[in-house]
Amino acid sequence: MIFGSIRRGTRVSVDNERCEIFGFCEMEAPSTFKIGPDGKLRIRRMVDRDGLDQAISAARLCPKQAIRVKGEGAYDDE
Ligand code: SF4
Predict the structure, then answer these.
(1) Does the keyword Iron-sulfur apply (predicted)?
(2) Which of 12, 16, 18, 19 to mutate to test the pocket of ligand 1 (most atoms within 8 A of CB)?
(3) Could you report the per-residue pLDDT of 7-51, keeping only the tens digit for each?
(4) CATH code, domain carrying 60
(5) Which of 1, 11, 61, 78 is the most exposed place for a label (fewest CB within 10 A)?
(6) Looking at residues 47-59, what average pLDDT do you find?
(7) Is 5 among the domain residues?
(8) Residue 24, SS3 per DSSP
(9) Which residue puts its alpha carbon closest to atom 3 of ligand 1?
(10) 30 lines ligand 1 (CB under 6 A)
Protein backbone atom coordinates (compact mmCIF):
# COMPACT_ATOMS: atom_id res chain seq x y z
CA MET A 1 0.00 0.00 0.00
CA ILE A 2 1.38 3.38 -0.96
CA PHE A 3 -0.25 5.47 1.73
CA GLY A 4 -0.21 4.56 5.42
CA SER A 5 -2.82 6.79 6.93
CA ILE A 6 -4.26 9.33 4.59
CA ARG A 7 -5.61 12.32 6.40
CA ARG A 8 -8.84 13.56 5.05
CA GLY A 9 -8.63 17.09 3.75
CA THR A 10 -4.84 17.14 3.36
CA ARG A 11 -3.95 17.87 -0.23
CA VAL A 12 -0.90 19.06 -2.07
CA SER A 13 -1.08 21.12 -5.23
CA VAL A 14 1.30 23.07 -7.44
CA ASP A 15 0.53 26.24 -9.34
CA ASN A 16 1.82 25.43 -12.81
CA GLU A 17 1.84 29.11 -13.72
CA ARG A 18 4.49 29.72 -11.04
CA CYS A 19 6.47 26.47 -11.11
CA GLU A 20 9.71 26.63 -13.07
CA ILE A 21 10.83 23.04 -12.39
CA PHE A 22 13.76 23.92 -10.18
CA GLY A 23 13.33 20.57 -8.44
CA PHE A 24 13.82 21.61 -4.83
CA CYS A 25 10.53 19.98 -3.98
CA GLU A 26 11.65 16.63 -5.37
CA MET A 27 14.80 16.76 -3.26
CA GLU A 28 12.86 17.69 -0.13
CA ALA A 29 9.84 15.44 -0.60
CA PRO A 30 10.66 12.69 -3.11
CA SER A 31 7.61 10.64 -2.17
CA THR A 32 5.35 13.52 -3.20
CA PHE A 33 7.14 15.32 -6.04
CA LYS A 34 8.90 13.82 -9.02
CA ILE A 35 10.22 15.35 -12.20
CA GLY A 36 9.59 12.87 -14.98
CA PRO A 37 11.83 12.09 -17.94
CA ASP A 38 9.70 14.48 -19.95
CA GLY A 39 10.75 17.31 -17.62
CA LYS A 40 7.28 17.74 -16.15
CA LEU A 41 6.57 17.79 -12.44
CA ARG A 42 4.30 15.09 -11.12
CA ILE A 43 2.82 15.27 -7.66
CA ARG A 44 1.07 12.94 -5.29
CA ARG A 45 -1.89 14.96 -4.13
CA MET A 46 -2.82 13.00 -1.02
CA VAL A 47 -0.05 12.46 1.51
CA ASP A 48 0.46 10.54 4.75
CA ARG A 49 1.95 12.08 7.89
CA ASP A 50 5.59 11.73 6.79
CA GLY A 51 4.75 12.93 3.31
CA LEU A 52 2.89 15.87 4.74
CA ASP A 53 5.83 17.04 6.82
CA GLN A 54 8.08 16.81 3.78
CA ALA A 55 5.55 18.56 1.56
CA ILE A 56 5.28 21.44 4.03
CA SER A 57 9.06 21.71 4.06
CA ALA A 58 9.12 21.67 0.24
CA ALA A 59 6.49 24.40 0.14
CA ARG A 60 8.69 26.56 2.36
CA LEU A 61 11.73 25.94 0.14
CA CYS A 62 10.04 26.44 -3.23
CA PRO A 63 11.62 29.59 -4.69
CA LYS A 64 8.45 30.33 -6.65
CA GLN A 65 6.06 29.75 -3.75
CA ALA A 66 4.16 27.45 -6.09
CA ILE A 67 3.25 24.69 -3.62
CA ARG A 68 0.07 24.72 -1.61
CA VAL A 69 -0.65 22.30 1.23
CA LYS A 70 -4.25 22.47 2.29
CA GLY A 71 -5.50 21.05 5.52
CA GLU A 72 -2.03 20.82 7.00
CA GLY A 73 -3.41 21.42 10.48
CA ALA A 74 -6.07 18.76 10.15
CA TYR A 75 -4.08 15.83 11.50
CA ASP A 76 -7.04 14.40 13.32
CA ASP A 77 -10.43 13.82 11.81
CA GLU A 78 -12.67 16.75 12.38
S1 SF4 B 1 10.41 23.67 -6.01
FE2 SF4 B 1 8.64 24.91 -6.70
S3 SF4 B 1 9.27 25.76 -8.66
FE4 SF4 B 1 10.63 24.05 -8.20
S5 SF4 B 1 9.75 22.26 -9.21
FE6 SF4 B 1 9.00 22.31 -7.12
S7 SF4 B 1 7.07 23.42 -7.22
FE8 SF4 B 1 8.17 23.87 -9.09
Answers:
(1) yes
(2) 19
(3) 555 789 999 999 999 999 999 999 999 999 999 999 999 888 878
(4) 3.30.70.20
(5) 1
(6) 89
(7) no
(8) helix
(9) 19
(10) no
Residue 1 lies in a domain: no
Total domain count for the chain?
1
d(CA 62, CA 59): 5
Q: Which domain holds residue 64?
A: 11-70
Using CA atoms of 35, 6, 58, 40 in order, give the dihedral in degrees to the nearest 10: 20
* pLDDT given at position 50: 79
Distance from the CA of 65 to the center of ligand 1, in angstroms?
8
Which one has a higher pLDDT value, 23 or 71? 23
Report residue 2's pLDDT band, with 50, 70 and 90 as the boundaries. very low
Percent helix, strand and coil across the chain, each rounded to 5?
A: 25, 20, 60
